[in-house]
Model the fold of this input.
Amino acid sequence: MNLHQLMRDLREDNGSKIVLVVADGLGGLPLEFGGKTELETANTPNLNAIVREGVCGLSVPVLPGITPGSGPGHLGLFGFDPLEYRIGRGILEALGINFQVGPRDVAVRGNFCTVNDAGLITDRRAGRPATERCVAMCQKMQTIKVPGVEAFVEPVREHRFVVVFRGDNLGDDVNDTDPQALNVAPLHAVGVDANSQNTAKAVNHFIAEAAKLLKADGPTNMITLRGFARYPKISTMQDIYGLRAACVAVYPMYKGLARLVGMDILDAGATLAEQIDTLKKVWDKYDFFFLHYKYTDSTGEDGNFGGKVEKIEHLDAEVPHIRALNPDVLIVTGDHSTPSKMKSHSWHPVPTVLWAKMVRPDGAVEFGESFCLRGGLGQFEAKYLMSLAMAHAGRLGKYGA
Amino acid sequence: MNLHQLMRDLREDNGSKIVLVVADGLGGLPLEFGGKTELETANTPNLNAIVREGVCGLSVPVLPGITPGSGPGHLGLFGFDPLEYRIGRGILEALGINFQVGPRDVAVRGNFCTVNDAGLITDRRAGRPATERCVAMCQKMQTIKVPGVEAFVEPVREHRFVVVFRGDNLGDDVNDTDPQALNVAPLHAVGVDANSQNTAKAVNHFIAEAAKLLKADGPTNMITLRGFARYPKISTMQDIYGLRAACVAVYPMYKGLARLVGMDILDAGATLAEQIDTLKKVWDKYDFFFLHYKYTDSTGEDGNFGGKVEKIEHLDAEVPHIRALNPDVLIVTGDHSTPSKMKSHSWHPVPTVLWAKMVRPDGAVEFGESFCLRGGLGQFEAKYLMSLAMAHAGRLGKYGA
Done:
């Protein structure tokens, strides 16, 4: 009996509403010994109110010590064991731009880069070109013919694009061609098994043609590819939880993750206020709302402690507008920690608060790592957040007589 | 290496005694924000003394968010993963009335109900008849002949009885005939696979005969059946832990659960004082004593906060009599929470205290959800309670050299 089957067996529809707010990279660290984290430094009266009336804890995204990317981080929050469900970057990028990936497809993330006359990379992001240029270069590459394989080239933004290779017997166990270093040439693609060798052959052909085509288009005169991935087999939120689920996110990656598990992707606007307006408009149509807030992560990645504090305070200011919708369960958490001190994702457990009528209170009074450490949810694996949400929403029946 | 095999490999017999007191549905919730739970409200000087000298924590019966029935709740406490061992209601009821279920049997729980002239249910419990009437009606149904199958009809109490269908190739994947609603007719039994279709055929024959037989016996003029179940494969406490185990329970369901894992079922009387007297009488004959106390659950189910507080205080008053027996390990816990506020079982972790000489103290001073949240056992899966009990009883050797 696995967790998803248990959910299918026990779920009940009572019309209740669950809102999951993911503040990306929410968890942090103090800059100095004895100091406070970003979340503890921020003035968050509205989040504190939820903590006082709710129950808090620390979410362990994958396992102790494991730092997740956005994919595993979010899959865990949606109730999928991130070690069982592994989603390649190519698939995530393709989903994020609304590309309908199919069973004969291998998707991969592409970057425009700059190479010198010797073919060595001098800028891994080609000076971050304008998105219009990215679109034009992708159109140019769309003319490339690969024997026996269709190649779709889709712009994302700036230096980023997606290629989907469609054909029979294409595997995805192929190395990245991005060497992640300067002054070296892009790598040759090599497939591990027979099907992946088919893919590698098509990929190397594609790259060689692209190199010729873009030769005079510096700084966007070369490409690298990484994250070859086939479409994974994964159940939907509707199938597992019986929830009509909607995603209100701004960035492609998170839309892609939500689409993967069957959420409807709503046109969310560009700001938190617009995202919440979208929530309001579709409130009656859905049972579950995934609201993604990016900027707690990006400021953390930039090492901008004060900026992250501000972004948390901005989120806090919008919380009353979410509460005004009167959800039955409101969760605020992150997909992982991104301490400004580290300028990167980290393994540290993520502050989490769950508000609902039937919580058992835990005496916590502020939203922060220290209170969450002593919270009533304890330290829990992220994959159990959805069963906790379903229980508190009154959507789970009793297991066994 | 699973947990049970580990126990078999490491166990040692040192003559120590373990008492497991299960206060059914022990965990609760405050009625109002800022209030105390039932257990925190109760005046429990004797339980508090155990907490001060012992170690406490919160037991998670199945998984976060999962509300267990009595079966999974108790199996967890006995050290069985409740997701691996699933016990049908029919088996539990049959075991609880001392019926010796065998490998050719399918057992099911029956209810007398009242139907009107149109055959629609007007009372799902037939007005809760006296047990004597239940006995008489079961004797009447015992005359029913089912072709190729033996049917044993055994009274439980009030409107409740058990039917055991004995024959070859009888499966238990059969739906409940209880529609769990009024003004509808009892459902027809349908088997999912071939063997279960054999069972369904026998069941429908039995029900049709019962309907004729009881026609004039209103309000007990019809029956519903639910929880068809074959006898599960499960190891005994003796086999896993090397413990001579005894059950001192009043209600059939809990005797049934204990018999299932090989405990001897003792004649316990009807009160806690009588149960403890029984314990005293057989103290030398057993190593492990399961004492079940029902009323913390039934008051919770009734939404009777004050009543639950009283029942907890009643338990507390008897604790010194258990301690007087000088057990090596004394555990007080519950199989799940039953908050009066919810009038039902719930998923909230269950307050637990373990007293033994070699505990590491945790500073807790009162038995309650808040202290248990910060207790030395942390939040732990119920299935680990027995290995903790064995360890503190000095009954587990070292794992590995």
